[in-house]
Amino acid sequence: MIDYSYKYIVIHFGEIWLKGDNRNVFISRLRKNIAAALTDIEHGPLELKRDRFILELSENSDVKEISDRVSKVFGISWFAPAILVNGNVSDMFGAIRKLASDLGNKPVRIVVRRSLKKGKDSMEILKELLALAIKEGVNVDKDSKNIISANITDFGTLVYSDKIKGACGLPVGSSGKAVILLSGGIDSPVASYYAMKRGLTPVYLHFHPFASNKIAEESKIGEFGRVLSRYSNGASIYFAKADLFQSAVMKMPSKYEHVLFKRFMYKVAERIAKKEGAEVICTGESLAQVASQTVKNMRASEKGIRLLMFRPLSGFDKQEIVNEAQRLGTFEISIKPYKDVCSMRLRNPSTSMSADLVDALYKKYGMAKIVQKTVKGISHSSWTI
Ligand code: ATP
Ligand code: MG
Predict the structure, then answer these.
(1) Which residue has its alpha carbon closest to ligand 1 atom 13?
(2) What's the 3-state SS for 57-101?
(3) Which range (13-27, 68-82, 215-229) has the least confidence?
(4) Among all ligands shown, which has an atom nearest to the Cα of 183?
(5) Fewest beta carbons less than 10 Å away: which of 30, 129, 147, 349?
């Protein structure tokens, strides 16, 4: 009696195939990331078979939890729990019948693919499978959306129906590191997701108005750390106090604070980036979303920053960002009350600051020293998945 239970998960990569000579570096990074996502879960070996990984399950593997973890690993286009049988058509059919019955005997479309170059071709095998299906009463319909695939390979035939969309993008770490400016709002956690999707390992930096870093660490910012760490197999947040900045700018016209605070944050971020070996600063800004996020202001705020400024939400509408936050599970955290740094709460910021004006204010209000002192007061916390 053949055991038609799921013994494997077949995992296909997406954009990695565009990578030419670097492909192996990306593939080994992806392998590491999948293994790290599953460290505390029971499973068998993870093997590279041509253009896919095959994850063997063990007897007590929790397929649902494994699927949930794999769905958060960037670099995977799709995956599916699969039954492995040999190349014999009647065994393939046995697996197809089992999956059709799991689908409630709804009409199914059978698709045969062959990566093995010898033996019967896929059309011949499909014909035999359809003949068996009709004979055994499996409801087949070539237009059905319920697809059962039989993929014939040199190590057996993988049969699966539940193709699950992966997170796509590139493996976290394959593009280096980014310091991500994480606020208590809706946008920056979503920006972080898109930075990770392009292969950046996140290092978070948060500025808070509290008397001690510990208060910020125990606030909802720590909750972001826990949720976001699922996409990067761990996360760490640097907490920085904004009090020195706040007192320094007390006498400055408040319409300038937004942009000067941004320049100040980027300068602190540069210091963290140096320590961490990061080459990117990422923010949750979206072009023209609010009065402070004009092209002029963004350019003025980033002048003199020697790292790549990455604003993955630049082209997003607010509603699209909210939808993404809901999907990722950060929205509920973002809308909890939080005491933001005053400078970011001010209304009516100037919409067209020049870089020269920001330079002058930076000097006048002694920002270089404030940056140095702020960096000294930073503390650091880590979360694992
Ligand atoms: P968000 O929803 O991410 O807070 P926002 O729409 O409120 O964004 P701003 O307040 O202008 O817009 O902030 C723009 C970006 O600046 C944020 O997305 C974040 O990257 C960064 N930022 C703002 N405040 C802080 C903070 N206190 N600590 C770290 N980064 C911050
Ligand atoms: Mg904000």
Answers:
(1) 285
(2) CCCCCCHHHHHHHHCCCCCEEEEEEEEEECCCHHHHHHHHHHHHH
(3) 13-27
(4) 1
(5) 147
